[in-house]
Amino acid sequence: MSTGPTFSFATTADEVATAFVNEIKGKNVLVTGTSLKSLGFETARVIAKHANLVIITGYNAERLKLSEETIKKEIPQANIYPLVLDLSSFASVRKAAAEINARTEPLHVLINNAAASFVDFKLTADGLETQLATDHVGPFLFTKLLTPKLLASATPTYTPRVVFVSSAAQAVGTGVDFDALENPDPAKYSKQVAYGQAKSANVLTAIELSKRSKGKINAYSLQPGLIFTNIFEKEDSIPTLQSIGVLGEDKKAIAERPWKTLPQGAATTLAAAFDPRLNDKPGAFLDDSTVADHLLAPHSSDPAKAERLWNITEKIIGEAFVF
Predict the structure, then answer these.
(1) Where are the beta strands (DSSP E) in 117-258?
(2) First-to-last C-alpha distance (Å) of the chain
(3) Key word Membrane present in the record (predicted)?
């Protein structure tokens, strides 16, 4: 990357925002998954200090209202728009996208942050496994439906961005099981494996979106680091988190692991959304707010897999993604 601010493991979202305050000013940004004590909330909170508009989403209207009120209490001048969105439901995704598309302003940045992590096997109303539906197919459809709004923000000097919050789990296993994506089977399901597949899908989607848009949209993916968010307090997630060695028997974080705070964890999302040094690096993967493509597993960076995933996901949603 070219010269400019230097970031590290300890860099916070506020520090990244300060470095790129001129890039954030005037922007309209949508962040999915913004419940309190989450990565998405911290991301939205910091962006709201400087942006023209921040759209926050959640599937629970009461919790969404609480997030809005908490941000407004700290930042009275913040322009916050709450949007009810359940990414596991095509109908909800379509309704939410229509609500945004009915607004007059363009959308500069879409941050696909929300995720269902380590959940039990369950089919959605659309017949998909919940984790892959919420983490990959829903965001894919949402991004597709909001693409006209994103393209409307483009200028000769600005290219709209889409950010996918992935995870170090993109390197786990063998990547996306395309058959399981189309034909979910409870007998073959593993919470941990499905999570890794979903996070690999995030990376592949960013790569293919950047490729197919031919310079009209720059997409990025990232790993935020190990952060004690609200996911770590969900009873159905705790056994899996204990089995992979991040939580102890007392349900507390294992101190020997390299944990980040929420402000540190959100930093890389801010960099992916606003660092102008990424303009000529579409499809890049970030870690510690810096390009880190070398950390990608082969199955998460394979162009053939990215193209296949895109085509299968278009088939699942029943429509083509056009620019």
Answers:
(1) 161-165, 218-223, 226-227
(2) 28
(3) no
> Looking at 11-25, 90-104, 170-184, 254-268, which range is the least confident one?
254-268
Whole-angstrom CA distances from 261 to 28, 37, 101, 225, 289 are 26, 11, 35, 9, 14
By the 8 A CB rule, do 274 and 16 touch? yes
pLDDT at 132: 96
In DSSP terms, 279 is beta-bridged to none
Residue owning tokens 């998460």:
300
Q: Is 316 helix (H, G, I), strand (E, B) or coil?
A: helix
- Residue 189 known to be catalytic: yes
Which of 221, 215, 192, 188 lies closest to 309 in space, CA to CA? 221
Find the range with the poorest average confidence among 2-16, 40-54, 106-120, 235-249: 235-249
Report which of 191, 165, 212 is spatially closest to residue 313, judged by C-alpha positions: 212
Distance CA 241, CA 221 (A): 23
Average confidence score pLDDT of the chain: 93
Per CATH, is 13-230+261-316 categorized as 3.30.70.980?
Answer: no
Q: 75 φ, ψ to 5°?
A: -125, 80
Rg of the chain over Cα atoms, rounded to whole angstroms, equals: 18
Query: Side chain identity at 57, as an amino acid letter?
Result: T
Domain map (residue ranges) of the chain: 13-230+261-316
Compute the average pLDDT of residues 67-75: 98
Q: Could you write out the DSSP letters of every residue in 187-222?
A: GG--HHHHHHHHHHHHHHHHHHHHHHHTTS-EEEEE
Does residue 92 contact residue 86 with C-beta atoms inside 8 Å? Answer: yes
Q: Which of 59, 81, 189, 195 is catalytic?
A: 189
pTM beyond 0.90, yes or no: yes
135-147: pLDDT as tens digits: 999 999 999 999 9
